[in-house]
Amino acid sequence: AEQQDVLKEMGNIGTGNAVTALSRLIKKKIDVTLTDVGIISFDQLTDQFGGPKERVCGIFCHIDAPSQSTILNIFDMKPLMSLIASLAGKKSKIDPNKVKSKKDLDDFAISTITEMGNIMAGHYASALADLLETKLMIDIPEFAMSNAGELGEFLSQELKSIAEFIIIIKTSVKISELKLKCIFFLIPDIKTLNMFFNKLGIEQEISVGSLDNSQEPKLLDVDKLKLTELQRDALQE
What we know:
237 residues, alpha+beta, 41% helix, CheC-like_sf, hydrolase, chemotaxis, hydrolase activity, CheZ_family_phosphatases
């Protein structure tokens, strides 16, 4: 229970700053509607994204140093495209109802999606860095557009050979007037979590096995979550 509480606190850190910055970018009010934490199996990963046929945009941002963690934002596709079209105004070259892949996007849409991922990941990483009294270096975000089910299955297949369980910290934010929902995953590695516990004065070392005693799973090497160009292309199909 204590670890669960600390994980939830870790999920709350940075969310406020990230949402405030994102709100300034899109000039809309954003409500944080849910924070949840836990450990799931890869078989459960698909369920985290909503209905399997739902079109989503997944933005990945990798934290390189001093440890390996990954930040993942999942947006509903159509409301996100509507938001971007409204931001572009008359200059918009996209039809929110017809966007199926990155090929349907213009430069403004691509840069806006990337910047949204950069803002959320950057503020989240900054808040964590302040808490841990260290520096966290983040990569330039990458994004993929796919059915939710396909995205979940793709990640499951890519990561299943590396580990049996994944630690997630999930924050859901909502832009009510657009009915846009974003699910925010922070996938920290064990080193980051242990640093977090040490800063809060908790002596217990965390491991996936200590949170799920039914079996002793391998630890997740989140560095493998980085997508290659080939993998990103596969998600566009």
